């Protein structure tokens, strides 16, 4: 049986509390600055978080493959599963307002969004079978951790929901402990890690730490993946300090790496603008912003984002090909796809940086 945490007192060293406060301030400051920019970075940061969270589970794909999957141009397994993580993050942020009142419903919605495209039979459903972490696929003998029995999952999730409804804990401490408890319950047959990290973001949005953008904390966790897993193990053994410290470090690292990422993207956008000759009210400027957040498009996708006709979108794409901003990827005469190589290169370089582990 898993100990209940809803009524449990939380006592952490003052040093650790100071670290969490520093990380919280850093996230709030980053959110405020990134939220004031004219370029819409939120969807790009959310996609970066989703890719890093997936990479923790050894699911990898290039920025181009993920962007192609998002517009239905890539049906390979990994990009499709990472896209599911994007949908889970979107569900997490959408449900953040109701997290205190209906945590279970919010968590089920995240998992449903994550798994609907890859394993619909379990999507949004608490597990009915025993699962384990490590050891053999044939049984739990030698497993690193065996979560609660299936019949114990609903009461454990109800306790977690009560814990999430508390209002007496610092936001980052609250989010880290809720994440660790969720991972310990392991309520689903698959997708627990990615759902648990989406839950962390739902709580940060619910508590007001972030209001505009997603801080890609999973990128920070990825850098020290082994320490992250060790911290979850320590939590299961009764020590909550390592996971709180790990999430705080990850948040600080994420702010630092995401700040560099946004600076690099802004530099690309500025360079693009220097190559364009158009009236200040031309939709081509908005097209550049679309390409920053969505670096692979079709004419129809671009038209929908601009609120313009497909003909207008094609004209802008033709001009941007001439300016060296985009390239056509397919060589087809119909159903053509354009990509922004400069943005894709920045995103892949970012993924490579955060993938270097301590």
UniProtKB/TrEMBL annotation:
Start and end residues of each Fido domain: 102-249
Species assigned in the record: Kineosphaera limosa NBRC 100340
Entry binding sites for ATP: 190-197
Active site, per annotation: 186
Record protein name field: Fido domain-containing protein
Gene Ontology molecular function terms on file: ATP binding
Keywords: ATP-binding, Nucleotide-binding
Highest taxon above the source species: Bacteria
